[in-house]
Amino acid sequence: MKKLVLLFVFVAALTTLVACSQKPKLYVLNWGDYMDTDLIAAFEEEYGVQVSYKPAGSNEEMATLLQASNTPYDIVIPSDYMIDKLIQEDLLQEIQFDLLTNYESLNVIDKLETLYQDSTIAPYLVPYAWGTIGIMYNTTNPDLKTFVETNQWGALFQSGSYRAGMYDSARDAVASALLYLGYHVNSDDTTELAAAENALKNAGFTAWGEDNLKGLVISGNLDLALVYSGDYFSEYYVALEDEIDITFDFYVPDVTNVWLDAMVIPKNSQNVELAHQFIDFFLRPDIAIQNSDYIGYAPCYQQVYDLMISEEYGYDFDTFDPYPAGAVRQMYVYGSDDRQNRIVQILSRAKSE
Amino acid sequence: MRRLRPYSIPYFIWMAIFVLVPTILLLFLAFSDLNLYRLSAFEFRFSNFTIFSEPFIQRALFNSFFYALIVTLISFLVGYPVAFYITTLQEKKKKFLIALLILPLWTNMLVRLTAWERIFSANSIFSDVFGLQIPILGTELAVVIGLLAMYLPFMIFPIFSVLDKLDTKLIEASKDLGASDTQTFLRVIFPLSLGGVVSGFIMTFLPSLTTFALPEVLGWRKVPMIGMEIQKKFILEGLQPFSINQGALISILIMLFSIASFVLITKVDKEGETLI
Amino acid sequence: MMVQNQIKSRVRKTSGLLITILTFLFLYLPIIIIFLISVNNSTRGYRWEGFTLKWYQDLLFNVTNPSSDLRIFREAIGNTIWVALRSTFFATLLGTIFAIGIHALDKKKRVKMMVLNNIPVVNPDIVTGISLMVVFSLLSFQLGESTVLLAHIFFSIPYVVLSIIPKLKRLDPNMYEAALDLGCSRLSAVWRVILPNISTGIIGGALIAFTMSIDDFVISYFTSGIDFENVSIWLYTKMKNPQNLNPTLYAYNVLIILITIGVILYINLKKDRKEKIS
Description:
The complex is a heterotrimer.
Chain A: H1 2-17, E1 25-31, H2 37-47, E2 50-56, H3 59-67, E3 75-76, H4 80-88, E4 92-93, H5 110-116, E5 126-138, H6 142-151, H7 154-157, E6 164-167, H8 170-180, H9 190-202, E7 207-209, H10 212-218, E8 224-228, H11 229-242, E9 248-251, E10 255-263, E11 265-266, H12 272-282, H13 285-295, H14 302-309, E12 328-330, H15 337-351
Parallel strand pairs in A: 1-2, 1-3, 6-7, 6-8, 10-12
Antiparallel strand pairs in A: 4-11, 5-8, 5-9, 5-10
Helix pairs in contact in A: 8-9, 8-15, 9-15, 13-14
Chain B: H1 9-30, H2 55-87, H3 91-102, H4 109-119, H5 125-130, H6 140-164, H7 168-176, H8 181-210, H9 213-218, H10 226-236, H11 243-268
Helix pairs in contact in B: 1-11, 2-6, 2-8, 6-8, 7-8, 8-11, 10-11
Chain C: H1 2-38, H2 54-61, H3 68-103, H4 107-122, H5 125-138, H6 145-169, H7 173-181, H8 186-197, H9 199-215, H10 218-223, H11 231-239, H12 248-277
Helix pairs in contact in C: 1-12, 2-12, 3-6, 3-9, 4-6, 6-9, 7-8
């Protein structure tokens, strides 16, 4: 008995004190369910490393985790406006594009590139996915389709007897309210923001959530909800594959937000070279296609896009285009700390009504 | 035995590090503009208190105390009779029922939470198999019922534990002296079980007060509770200036309340043994 | 008068039974749902789609081609159990030593130490979690497995102490002195006299420590940082996207329940046999 105890002590002490494994470890911070885990496993095998993948639910959460110096992430995938803020906070380092062997042979899709190429954030990011926000709704009730298409954003804010869900994100909730009222998503006007706060308070949403909203619409526990474009498409592809009846649809209002999520490398990353190899891995066309299929969002690179619509893969991108010709799209900017505080406050106040 | 005293010194140091230091740090954060991740010059101020003027924080505090109180009271009204009934059974049945009571606690709390989520959904495995629809997700009722399901056992155990150890001779003596059943209960049994009751109250009230995953899931994020606000301040909105400071202030408030409750226990039970 | 009393006690007994049954049904409702999901033939686990045992198969026997989701889940289970075992071990070890030390103090100091001891027990876990996160950040510890382990040891020790102190009180203090008089060293006296008599307290404390560690969510959530995932944290992040929640999680929980039942039955049978023999 004594010997057993001593052995256990020895083993426990050993494993507690000594570092776990010899393989280098890459720390990735991303949105939940936003990267094909099989591809991560493939990367681990090919490069002989370990990847620790931690999902966060929002840009704000990612920012909190990044600022803590005792959490040295190597790769983060935030959205445009948050990249802006992180650069201001001096938390990111510039991408060394010459380390990315696959980047030269790729062109970013024109419409997407114009959105960010002239801004200060360009040297810090490698595009990952882009899309819009829109309304996903359940199609079991035939009237709902006309309701959504006629009322656009109003369908969420004056849902009447329909059960509507709203995204628990300060940026997106306030933006949808501003769009509903006909204002710009980046408005910093006191009256406009106050009106947005009232709209959110009075909307009486049945549920606030994040990724679970799409599931609630599909299962019929909600009638409609604000979702990101890829939420719809990933569910759509899965339904096609599993051959389930598709009881949901997606509508993009005329005026909406367009966003870009990109890979960035934090300043206190401890594996900069490996991080670049990770980014490079996801720039390989076959990998990019598989990942795009998994997450459901539009690819950012023209070559990947062309491959996906070709005979070989046969994707139909008519409904996939986040930025069709002639459409009105507004991209977020960070604004100021005061504005960020204000929209966070609006969200907290609106949820507790 | 005295020579064994030195064994307790390292514990004192350990507790000092893990209990006193964080508390002091939280106090510093709460009463200044210190940035936790960029330690630099800071100044003391009370402006973090403005967070309490926000209606949603007030609502969250009110909700938390209110629900915790309701859950504790209902747990008591249901739990005491249950504990009492079990003590009247034979030894074997007693052990069996108590083991049966502990069993659900061995499943992960979050897993049980997802089960309750399905029970309260309009269309889920629950409605499919049982044919009933209880679509109350997003309501305060769902949160309260959920809290009850999670913490009722914690009211039953301490009460049962104390009642079980009661000297039956005292009850017999009371009956011999002519007291009715009710009188025996009110004057002998209940007062002797008070230690367990207070324990149960604390074990039910405090967790219900500070829960954060439960209202998020069962309340569909519409039901504000103070645990969620604390989580937001530290984890979800931490990049906001002073967010962590405000969070620390709210935490201190909750901590003061728990310590006050703890002082209450020590008044009722002097040995510090009641909690197990 | 007699009949009235008999009726009264009958009514009381039946109502006691009724309320107990209803309570148990209420507490077991989620367990039934967990069981149903574990045998539900659906990847999403949300609607009922037929009976199957494939989740148990996948969890236990799928070694050749587990999906990456399954591998991550299994890793989370491994983390949970490994942390629980180590934290229980250290907490029990340290808790026993500290309990003996506290018991040896004079009354005033003892009460003070017990107050300090009980603070982590009374503090809501969110406050403990945040306190620890704040301390670790200040000391610039990288949040991960070691901080979680440290945190678990920290909140387990008080329970071990609380479990052992009552047993120490019932110990005859003269036995220890007698052992010393008979020539035992201090350590030997502790090992041979004190420990065997408080063994039920030690075991009880270890069990509580293990349970608290295995099920912990809040404290692990705040102290795990970038690297560490136990089952609770894994589940919490997955819960925000419940459609992709692998039902093997529910199979795992059902197995835990069955194992627990097995252990309890085994202990009870052993006790019965011991009683029969003696």
